[in-house]
Each structure stands twice: as C-alpha cells, then as structure tokens.
Design goal:
The structure holds 3 protein chains of 3 kinds. Chain A is an alpha/beta fold. Chain A folds into 4 domains: 229 residues, 3-Layer(aba) Sandwich (Pyruvate-ferredoxin Oxidoreductase, domain 3); 185 residues, 3-Layer(aba) Sandwich (Rossmann fold); 70 residues, no CATH class; 115 residues, 3-Layer(aba) Sandwich (Rossmann fold), CATH 3.40.50. Chain A contains 20 helices and 23 strands. The longest helix of chain B is centred in the N-terminal third of the chain and has 26 residues. In chain B, helix 2 runs antiparallel to helix 5 and helix 2 runs parallel beside helix 6. Chain B is elongated and about 80 Å long. A 7-stranded mixed β-sheet of chain B has the order 1-2-3-5-4-6-7, with helices on both faces. By secondary structure, chain C is an alpha/beta fold. Chain C has a single domain, classed as Thiamin diphosphate (ThDP)-binding fold, Pyr/PP domains (Rossmann fold). In chain C, strands 2-1-3-4-8-7-11-9-10 form a 9-stranded mixed β-sheet, with helices on both faces. In chain C, strands 5-6 form a two-stranded antiparallel ribbon. The chains are: A alpha/beta, B alpha/beta, C alpha/beta. Strand 18 of chain A pairs parallel with strand 2 of chain C, so a sheet runs across the interface.
Chain lengths: 634, 335, 317
C-alpha cells in the first residue's frame, strides 16, 4: 500500500533532522504536460549535477504529438536524470523519484513500468480538490491505480504556492520544482542561479529574479516538509569535460573532421544534428543543405564529394531505404561518402522517436548488387564525436562509403565526457588540383589491395568520366565478364585491407569464462553495468563490444572459443524458443547474432528486445542469469 | 590616411573576397608544407601522423603504422623541385604575414593611380605564379624553367581564372588624383575595388566606369558596399566625401540602364575644377548618371544623325554604348 | 563561392592555348545511326570550342538513358550517375566548386519522370548550370516504353494500344516553377538554332533549362516527323535578348517577336497547339542563384580549430 502523507501532517510533524540516504546512483524524473517546463527544469538539474562532479545521463521524455491536450497520459513530457558517484554510461533501471505536475502524466510513467516499486512520487495536489468533478474523479481513479505498487506519494501544493509569487503558475512551477529537488539532493544553489541566469540571459533582470524567488520557494517548502535527503557523492573533476547529446556530438565531430557539407532531409531522430549544424556550420565555412528529398540529399553529398569535398548525409531508417541506389553508385564510382543513420524503431514509419538497433543488416547490405562498404557504430556519446573523424578519413583513404550507425538512445541521451582537443590533422586536406601524372587512370587499382587515388575535377590531364556502369581501371564501360569479376574483386579487396589493419577487440571482464555478451552501438553502458553486477555476484561473464561491423573486427572466433557460451544483446527483434512455431531451425535471431554466426560458425545465441526504450541494465542482468550455461555444460 | 575609419569599413565590407583569397594562400601553404614534410618523414613519423589523422575512435582499433604503410606519400620530388617549392612557400608566407596590408593601396598625393594599382596587383600576381609552381612540383612536372613563375606578373598578363580569383583592393586616394580611366583597366573578372576618396572630390568620379556588367557604387556612409561585395562580377565603389553624388549601378537590376541605376543624390556642378577635372567634364559626368537613370518615358530620342542600335544586335553593351555616343553627340550640339 | 576551393589551375604551359574541337572529343559515340544525339554532341563540342571552355574545369553530369552516355563522348570531366538523379549530383558539384562549369544531360524519362522532383527543385535552386533535356518522347535504352512526353495514342511496348495520357509539357512545368530563370526549346534537326540556344543558355547567369527535341530513329521516328518535314509547323521566337538565327529565315518563315522577360506570353507560347515554338521562352538573370545565396566565408584550418574550441566552450562543464 502506498503511504499517503497528507500535507498537514507533513507540515506539522516534519522531523527535525531528515533521514539521509547515501547512494551510489539514483534516477529521478520530472513529468508534466507539454509546455510546462519540466524539460528545462531537468536540464538545469542535470547540468548542475555534472558541474558538481556527479556522473550524469539524462534523457528527454517526449510526447508523440507536438501539442497534446492537457492532462492526458499520452501528453507526458519530461526529463529523466540518472546521477551517480562515478561515470554514468546509460539511462539505468527504474526511476526512484518522480515529480509530476498532474496524476495523468504520472500514470503514463507508471503504465510503461518506468517507476521502481518503492519510488517516491511528488505530485501536484490541486487536482484532488479541483472545481471540475471529472478532474476530481480522474485523480481518485489515478490514485487507485497507483495503489497497486509500494510507491510513496507526497502531494505538493505547487500551484498554490507559486500563485503567491506569480499570476500564471504555468510559468513558474518548474522553477519551484527545481528548488525542491535542489534541497532534497543538496545541489549547489549558486550554480543553479548561474544556470537560471544563462537560461534567461535574453530576458529582463525581473524575470531572472522572479525565477530565483520561485526556486527559493520550492527549496523552503522541501526544507520544511520533506523528511529525507538523497546524497550521491561527487567526485573532484580532474579534467575538462563537455556535456552534450549524441547528435550534437556527431555534428561537432563532423566539423572537427573538416567536413563542409551536411546534405539532409528532415527525419526523426536524425534531424537534430542538422538543427545544430544549421546554427553553427556557416561560421566554420560549411553549410547544411536541406534537399528536396532523401535521395537528393545523398546525391548532393556525392556530387560535392566527387568535386573534392568530403560531405556527409544524415538520416534514419526510412531515409536509408531511399538512399540505397545512390549508395551503390558511390561504391561503384569509388566516391568517398559518410552516411550517418540515427536508427529508430522500424519497419516502415515504425517508432520514429524510439530507440532500436534494427538497421544493422539493412546497413550492411543496403544496396542491391554487391556493394561492399564500411559500417561503424559508436557506442557512447563521446564516440559520436570521434567516429566522424575516423569515418571521413577512412572514406577518403579507401574511396568508399562509410556508414555510421547511431541510434535514438545516443541521439537524445546527454552525458559529460572528456573535452576533445581538436587537431589540425583531423581535418580534410585542401583540394589537390595538381596536374594528373601522365598515364594515370581514374581507378589505378593496386592489384593487391584494390586501393587507388581519386582524381577530382579541375586537375589538368584527368578528364575522366566516372560511371555507375561496371568499368575497368580506365572507367571504360565493361562489356566482358572478366572485367566485372576483376572490378568486383578490387572493390571487395579494400574491405579485406581495412580488416587487416583492425586490431582484435578486448573483452570487458576476463579473457575467458562461462558467458560472453556481444553487443554493438548504444547498449555498451547498460551491458557492461549488467556484467559488473553479475561478476559481483560471482558469475563468470564478460562483454565484447564491436565498433566495426563491416569489415568485422578480427579474431572473434578465437575470443568466442574461450567462452562456454556466446550471446548477443541487441535492441532488435528475435524469436524466442518456446514461442508458438519457433524452432532452432526456423528461429529468426538478432541481427548481430546472424552476422556473427555466419562469420565465425560459432553457435551464437541472442537476447534481444524491442521495448521502444533503451535496455535497462537490470533487464540484461536478468537475461544473463537466464542464459548462464549450467555448470559443467559445454 | 591609413587611420581613416572608412578604410576599416571598406575592409569589413570586403571580408568575403578577402577570406576567399586568403583561403587560397592557406590551402597552398598547408599543401606545400605537407608535401615537404612527407618527403622527409620517417616511418614512425608517418605512423604518428596517421594515428592522429584517424582520430580517437581508431585508438587501439586501427594499426596506424600499417595504415601509413598502405597509404604512402606521393612520389618523391627532386632537390631542385623541393627548393622551388620552398621558394613558393616563402612567397605565400610573406603575403600572409602582411595581413590586410596587401589589400590596401595608399596612393601618395600627386602619384598616378593606375601605376600604383598596377604595382599592387603585380605583387599579388606573384602568389598565383607560386600556386602554379607548387601544383607543378606536386604533380611531378617541375622543370627549372618553371622558376620564372615566381616573378611578379602584371595584371594584364593574368589569365581568366586568375582574374576571377583576384583579391579585392581598398585604395586610399585624393579626389584630385582620381582618374576613372585608370581604374577601368583593372575592373575585370570578379575584381572588387573600393576607393576611399580623401580631400575634395569630383562629384561623380565613377560615372565613366558604368558598363552593363560592372557594379558601380558611390556612397558616403558605406551603404551598398555589402551588395557590391556579394556581386559575382567586376565592381568598383568609391566612398566619397559628403556633397558628391550618391548612386548605385547594379547589373542584376534589369536589362535597361534605368532598371540598374539607383540615384540617391545628385549635387550641382562644382564651380571650379578639381585636380585635372574641368567643370565641363564634371558636369558631363553628372549628366551621364542622371540620364542613365531616367525612365524610358523621358529618355530623349537618339540624337540627330546617330545610328539607332542595329536591330538584332545581341550584345546589350553595344546598345548602351551606341546610346551613350548618341547622348554625347546631343551634348556637343547643345554646347 | 561557398568556400575555399583552391585555385583551379591553370596549366600555365597551356596558358595561351587555343582549344580545338578535337580537344573535347572523348570516346567514339555509340548511339544508333540517325539518332538526334549525334547532332547535339556536335553542337556542344562547337560551343565548348567557341567559348574556349577549359576541359579540366568543365563537368558533364548525366543520369541513365541513351542521352546520358553523353559525358563518355567528351574529353571533359564527367559523371554518369543513376536514373533521374543527375541534378542532385550536379547541385553538389556546383555548390562546392563554383570554379567549374557544369552541364547536365538528361533524357525525358530521367528528367520528367523518375527525376521530376529533382527537376522542379533544381529550377528553384537556380544554380548557375546548363541543363539539357534531350527529349525523344520515348524510352530508348530499355527498348521502347512510354515516357511522360510520348504523344497520346503513340504505341509502345508498355502501352501497345497507344499512349494513354496526354503528354506532359516540360516547358509548362518549367515555366511554372518559382525562381526558374531560363527556359528555352530547340531542336536537334535545326543545328544553327540548337547551337545559338545552347550558347545563350551557357551565357545566362542561373540555371538554363533547354528542352531539345530529339528524334529516336528506331522507336519513335514519328514523334517529330511532322515538325521536321513541314517547317511551317515550326515558329521561331525571336528577340535580341533571346535567340536570333538569321541563317534560318528562309526555312522557318514563321517568326514571332517574343520578349523573353514576359512570363505570361511565355506560358501562352509554351501551350501553342498550332506550332512547335523554338527559342528562348523566358529569362530573368536577376533571379537569385543558390550558390550565391549560400556563399559562405571560407575558413582556414587554424581558424576552424579556434572556432571548434570556442564551440566546445559552450558545452564545457
């Protein structure tokens, strides 16, 4: 049964010294109707926590519609913050504390199982006594529904108190909540004031002061009425950090790599990269070109790249589908191209705002015909920055397409990471317009590696026509089978050469053991946290996280053989043995599992889920327990 | 004169073409540097370079030494070619170190504007020669004869492409020394010239620069310089003292002169000559801009005896020229 | 110019070089004998020679189809891409390399069918490029299928009882697009007019869209037969700002004085049921070009490094 603490009893009987809970990590959420400022409040809380030295991972809770009606579960808009005494690598498990502006948005979180069984819920209480009987009824029904869990519900007179300072509580509640949380979590008030000043820097002093007063009001209320405090120890920050989401990191990484064009068409969740770049790119001498469609976007990038600039295009699943013909052309003409796919749930329009890793095979085999290209996946927000530098370099050196697979989890997650130190050598070299040496061909394939130097327009003596038709070294259209065999080999060989330059990956945990979890992309933090917990429980589990999916990192079979069992953990769909009609033979496995089985002939199992949200470490730990090989089994 | 605030104003307005010219030099420097470095680099140095260029995502994942070996530097160059490239580098660095100075021409009173412009552009022309030299060395085609490319080159010997990439110039000049004929030789390609006119100025010194494809601006406060800088063709502007004519001739305005001309102010003809300009000349210059701007309804019929533009003449320039000749004839008749 | 693009050099050894037709000749053209494309190739080579375009600074971009083999037959840079997508590629080239002269060659399937979306938007971007639509009213390379410009009732392999719909009028489409700046029509069987039109297109500042009526002798020889055999069915649009070809006065006696700045008249003439009108329908060189709208101040490597550091400051904890 939930503990329903009435306002009055808290008001009169608050303990002199609140109970202090010291924790390694903790997750809280602020949820409201859209437009009530829960996200801003959460952002300030997250930023201040990071500055104080907590590990932080934040995620926005986004309603499916732009302007959903008030007080409906589907309209829940908010912010989720996980803080820790060390680096936080993922969004964590269930939420420990929620501040809700109404019971309907709270119900939304309850219904998706976002909240821990013993979560503390701080809820605006005005709805209980609202003039509208329907609202009062809804509140009562809501409370009934919540009573199924051991939540501790604390009503908060947010609006009532805010009205003492402002006329429109819609524009103040979030600051009140911020103050309340600052008190509970002992956040540094001067840093909060700094952030408020930053937020309202374009407004008047009065606006700033009013918001600080609201924050103080919330603090005072919590100080008087809340009987617990949460203490997550901070660490001294000994190096410079930056904090951003994965899409901003991708955009900034593209700039740092010297790219000058992002050709795109709006698509969720990739678009925010172009929002960011549209704001700053021209300052750097670059530009965002919003093309008329996904196909044109990649075509413009290929044109720019053919003309000597390395350009990139950014999209999500449905856009990738449209770009595949051009992708084949870039492979065939050996025109460097970086294609970023911020994955979302599919197929079709699927889950536009939710995370999934179901584009792996589509990315690998994106173009009809044999179109070998590179596929890489950053595993952290920090890697979203650095991957763009590597992607551009490889695309140019190998004259090929490099696809970068990010996902919604990385795109919308925010976490601090060590501040990159940009280097001039990360950037693309200026155009080479020197005369083409006598006799050089447009595809002067090194017969051993398939590598050749590209010739860009403007170079005297290099007037070649590149073509998507099968061709020989001289770009002469192939009319014989021998030429197609050879040119196919040359394009394929480049991947083998890259593969030969890759170092074998190192498992996280130990080199051998009972179970090896293999992952890729944004699941790294959650998998490794689950492995840590399992190892603490004495299980012999390790994890292996892949960044290169094409070509695959070398030495996998050797590593796999050191474990009794290998499974992949992925956010894509796979059949479960035991489900109707599913057998070992017809089971469709996770996409990485399929790939690894084909590449290593090891019987790789998988545990995959498509919950429309990042995997929780606790859930992965459950999977580890369920898939541990029995003692003595081989 | 160099402290004239209008000089800064002109440089700010020309920031885009200045940046474009600088980018050419900087690209050339970094390419020449990289080429020379690669010639001498040891295997470990090349591996280090590869490691950095691959970025941190590749740390521990890509064998940088192997990568460097797979992508060897371009073909070796002879010592004489390297020496020539180093000379070209000195030209680039010298120009780069001079900052904005290379874009500013200060014409001492009494000196000939055309000679000073020629001199300034010839120095800049050596950059183009050095760029070509660097390209030739990197392309493995260097022969000792190419050394001549580093000599300064007069503007008239620049080719079409070089003219398109000519840097802008800001010219500080006394009104008395302002000969529009001297400017016309340099208005070509995408050349942009801004004259900062000091002292007494003729009222319409740029009137004779107006041709259908040339952007011509006279301004007192600098307005219009942004449009001039953005114009994709030859352009000349003068920041004139208060009292001179204020007008803009924008070739994108339309096909007829009156569509292209915007006049904000036309003064009365000065009472005495300025520099070498007679009252009659100055009066005629003012007349020219006024008539170019006149709407078709008030454009007088072509003068007696002057031939109408041939029907079917494709080149608008010829028509305007013919019309101007007609106008001049009319003036003569009236005088 | 959008950004640093190096200096297009400039082989000074060739500085004073006079380019001849043979300097622009690529592989031997493999179109069918009698194909109108041969005549267009000849006119283009003449244009390149007369305008002395530097071969290494000229790029021909094409899609897929008979006409799209065009770049292979020239000795300039060329990019022979995929069906319908020549314009996006050309956009990327021109946007980043304003020092290059860009020509686009498309067929009617390329331009008006599979690539119609790009066509409309390219007209709107109005980059300074020359776009040639080689319109033979049929799919030739894939062997005789109906195209959007196939005359109604004309039988093909896909519509054997005759093309079902009235043909699409590319001129009307182009003239309907906001910011289109040059729309012309010419015919390969009138080489003097073809050349004059291409020259006007090349000299125009902005995207010059030229529909070239072109005969396919194998599958659709009938499409333009009446216009070819009866010059009275053709009217030349003449104007000092458009195209005037005095040599043709004797053959084409129907000449209409048309001011190409008049968009309404242009639209009426594009829909002329009595005549096939050849000439410049519309032009407006003052319309903004996308590469100029998007012109960005170039940054050097070191400037960029300093800016990235400043940008990271915004995200510093």
């Amino acid at each position: 049964m939930p503990t329903m603490t009435s306002m009055k009893s808290v008001g009169t009987a608050a303990p002199a010294a609140p109970k202090e809970l010291s924790l390694h990590e903790h997750t809280l959420e602020i949820v409201s109707d859209a437009g009530e400022g829960a996200q801003k409040c959460g952002q300030v809380f997250g930023a201040v926590s990071a500055k104080m030295g907590n590990g932080v991972w934040t995620v926005e809770i986004i309603p499916a519609e732009i302007q959903p009606p008030a007080r409906v579960p589907e309209g829940a808009s908010g912010f989720r913050i996980r803080i820790g005494d060390g680096p936080i690598t993922n969004w964590g498990d269930a939420t420990n504390l929620v501040v809700a502006f109404n019971e309907q948005v709270l119900l939304a979180r309850h219904r998706v199982d976002a909240l821990a069984n013993d979560a503390v819920l701080l809820v605006e209480d005005r709805w209980a006594t609202h003039d509208d009987p329907e609202i009062r009824t809804a509140w009562e029904h809501g409370m009934d529904e919540l009573s199924g869990k051991d939540y501790r519900i604390i009503p908060v007179p947010m609006e009532e108190l805010c009205l003492t300072l402002v006329d429109d509580p819609k524009k103040g509640k979030n600051m009140f909540v911020l103050g309340m949380l600052a008190c509970i979590y002992a956040r540094d008030v001067s840093r909060i004031q700094e952030q408020i000043a930053q937020t309202f820097r374009k407004k008047s002093v009065e606006v700033y002061e009013r918001n600080v007063a609201l924050m103080q009001l919330g603090w005072d209320w919590a100080d008087e009425h809340i009987d617990f405090r949460i203490h997550v120890p901070v660490q001294v920050i000994d190096r410079e950090l930056v904090v951003m989401n994965g899409n901003e990191a991708l955009g900034l990484g593209a700039i740092a790599s010297g790219m000058e064009l992002c050709a795109m068409y709006p698509i969720t969740p990739a678009t925010s990269v172009s929002h960011y770049l549209s704001e700053v790119f021209e300052k750097f001498g670059g530009m965002v070109h919003q093309a008329e469609d996904e196909i044109a976007a990649v075509g413009v990038a290929i044109g720019a790249s053919y003309a000597g600039k390395v350009a990139f295009t950014i999209t999500s699943g449905p856009g990738l589908a449209l770009k595949t013909e051009f992708l084949g052309l870039a492979v065939m003409t050996e025109t460097p191209l970086v294609l970023v796919n911020v994955q979302r749930g599919g197929p079709s329009t699927g889950l536009p705002t939710k995370v999934e890793q179901s584009d792996l095979l589509a990315a690998l085999f994106a173009s009809p015909g044999d179109a070998p290209h590179v596929v890489m996946a950053p595993a952290t927000i920090e890697e979203c920055f650095h991957v763009m530098i590597t992607a551009r370099r490889i695309a140019e050196a190998f004259r090929t397409v490099v696809m970068v697979l990010s996902d919604t989890n990385l795109a919308t997650g925010v976490t601090p990471f060590p501040r990159p130190k940009p280097d001039a050598r990360w950037q693309a070299e200026p155009l080479d317009l020197s005369p083409v040496p006598e006799g050089q061909k447009p595809y002067a394939w090194d017969p051993e590696t398939g590598l050749s130097r590209r010739v860009i327009p403007g170079r005297p003596g290099g007037m070649f026509t590149l073509t998507g038709l099968s061709h020989d070294e001289g770009s002469k259209v192939a009319y014989s089978s021998g030429i197609h065999q050879k040119s196919s080999a040359m394009r394929s060989r480049k991947l083998a050469v890259l593969s030969s330059l890759l170092e074998p990956p190192t498992p996280y945990g130990e080199e051998k053991g009972d179970l090896l979890i293999v992952g890729w992309g944004s699941t790294k933090g959650a998998i490794e946290e689950a492995v840590d917990r399992a190892r603490a429980d004495g299980m012999k589990v390790s994890a292996l996280h892949l960044r290169f999916l094409s070509p695959l990192e070398p030495g996998l079979k050797t590593i796999f053989k050191r474990f009794k069992k290998v499974i992949t953990v992925e956010i894509n769909y796979s059949d479960e043995i035991g489900d109707p009609h599913i057998t070992e033979e017809n089971r469709r496995r996770g996409q990485l599992a399929m790939l690894l089985r084909a590449a290593t002939l090891v019987d790789v199992d998988c545990w995959t889920r498509v919950p429309g949200e990042p995997l929780r470490p606790g859930a992965i730990l459950g999977a580890i327990r369920g898939r541990m090989p029995r003692r003595g089994a081989q | 004169m160099l402290s004239d605030p209008r000089l800064q104003q002109a440089l700010v307005a020309l920031a885009q073409p200045i940046a474009e010219f600088r980018a050419i030099i900087d690209d050339a420097i970094s390419q020449a540097d990289a080429f020379i470095t690669a010639q001498h680099a040891s295997a470990p140095q090349r591996a280090e370079h590869a490691a950095v260029s691959l970025g941190h995502f590749a740390d521990g994942r890509i064998d940088a030494a192997g990568f460097a070996a797979r992508f060897p530097p371009v073909a070796a160059a002879s010592p004489s070619a390297i020496a020539a490239l180093e000379q070209a580098l000195r030209v680039f660095r010298d120009v780069r170190e001079r900052g904005d100075d290379i874009f500013v021409v200060d014409v001492p009173p009494g000196r000939r504007l055309g000679v000073e412009l020629d001199h300034a552009l010839a120095t800049i022309g050596s950059v183009f020669g050095a760029v070509v030299l660097a390209e030739v060395v990197r392309g493995g085609r260097y022969t000792p004869e190419h050394a001549r490319l580093l000599q300064s080159r007069e503007f008239r010997s620049w080719n079409k492409t070089e003219r398109r990439f000519a840097p802008p110039l800001v010219v500080l000049v006394n009104g008395a020394d302002l000969q529009s004929g001297a400017i016309m030789d340099f208005v070509d390609g995408r050349e942009k010239i801004v004259l900062v006119v000091c002292g007494a100025s003729p009222p319409a010194p740029l009137a004779r620069c107006i041709t259908p494809g040339t952007f011509v601006l006279q301004t007192v406060d600098g307005s219009g310089l942004d449009r001039m800088a953005a114009f994709n063709g030859p352009a000349v502007a003068a920041i004139v003292p208060t009292g001179a004519a204020v007008f803009m001739h924008d070739p994108l305005g339309g096909k007829d002169p009156w569509q292209r001309m915007t006049i904000n102010f036309i003064p009365v003809t000065p009472k005495k000559s300025i520099g070498g300009q007679s009252i009659w000349q100055m009066s005629e210059d003012l007349q020219v801009i006024a008539e170019l701007a006149a709407t078709p309804f008030s454009i007088p019929a072509l003068g007696n005896g002057s031939a109408a533009p041939a029907a079917g003449a494709a080149d608008a320039a010829e028509k305007i020229a013919a019309w101007l000749v007609g106008q001049a004839g009319l003036q003569d008749g009236a005088a | 110019m959008t950004m640093s693009c190096g200096l297009p050099i400039l082989d000074h050894d060739n500085d004073e070089r006079e380019y001849e037709i043979s300097d622009y000749e690529g592989a031997r053209a493999r179109w069918c004998p009698g194909c109108g494309d041969h005549s267009i190739l000849a006119s283009v080579q003449k244009l390149l020679t007369n305008e002395q375009l530097v071969p290494e600074q000229t790029v021909f971009v094409s899609g897929i189809g008979c006409s799209s083999r065009f770049p292979h037959y020239l000795k300039t840079y060329g990019f022979h891409g995929i069906h319908g997508r020549a314009l996006p590629v050309a956009t990327g080239i021109r946007l980043h390399r304003p020092d290059l002269t860009v020509f686009v060659v498309m067929g009617d399937g390329d331009c008006t069918s599979i690539g119609a979306g790009h066509w409309i938007h390219a007209l709107r971007y109005n980059l300074d490029i020359v776009v040639m639509l080689l319109d033979n009213g049929i799919y030739g390379l894939t062997k005789n299928q109906t195209s959007p410009t196939t005359p109604q009732g004309f039988p093909t392999n896909t519509q054997p009882h005759g093309s079902l719909l009235p043909p699409l009028n590319p001129l009307q489409v182009a003239l309907g697009v906001t910011n289109a700046s040059f729309v012309a029509q010419t015919a390969e069987w009138a080489p003097a007019h073809l050349y004059a039109t291409l020259r006007a297109a090349y000299r125009h500042h902005g995207l010059s869209f030229v529909r070239i009526l072109q005969r396919c002798p194998i599958y659709a020889s009938a499409v333009y037969q009446k216009a070819v055999s009866d010059p009275a069915r053709i009217a030349l649009l003449v104007h000092d700002d458009g195209v005037v070809v005095p040599d043709l006065n004797k053959i084409y006696t129907t000449q209409l004085l048309h001011d190409p700045h008049d968009i309404d008249a242009a639209r009426r003439l594009a829909d002329d049921a009595d005549h096939t009108n050849l000439g410049v329908f519309f032009l407006d060189p003052s319309r903004p070009c996308y590469e100029e709208t998007r012109r960005v101040q170039p940054r050097t490597v070191n400037e960029r490094l300093a800016l990235i550091d400043a940008e990271l400051d915004r995200y510093a904890v």
